[in-house]
Amino acid sequence: MKRRAKGTGTIYRRKDGRWAGEIDVTLSNGEQKRALTTSKSREVVRSWLRKIRDQENRKIPYSEKDWTVAEYLDYWMQDVQVGRIRETTMEAYNLTIKKHLKPTLGSHKLQNLRACDIRHALDMLEKRGCLGATIQKSLWILSACLNCALREEVIQRNVAQLVEKPKYNPKETRIWTVEQAALFLHSVKDHPHFIAFLLLLTYGMRRGEVLGLRWSDIDFENELIHVRQQIGRINGKIIPRNLKTANSLRTLPLMTNVREALMNHAKKCNVTPSQFVPYIELSTQNTVIVSKSGTPLEPRNLGRLFDVLTKKVGLPRIKVHAMRHTAATVLKDLNVPIKDAQLILGHANILTTMKIYQHGTPEAHRTAISAVEDRLLGRHVMLVNI
Question: Is the pTM here over 0.85, yes or no?
Answer without folding.
Answer: no
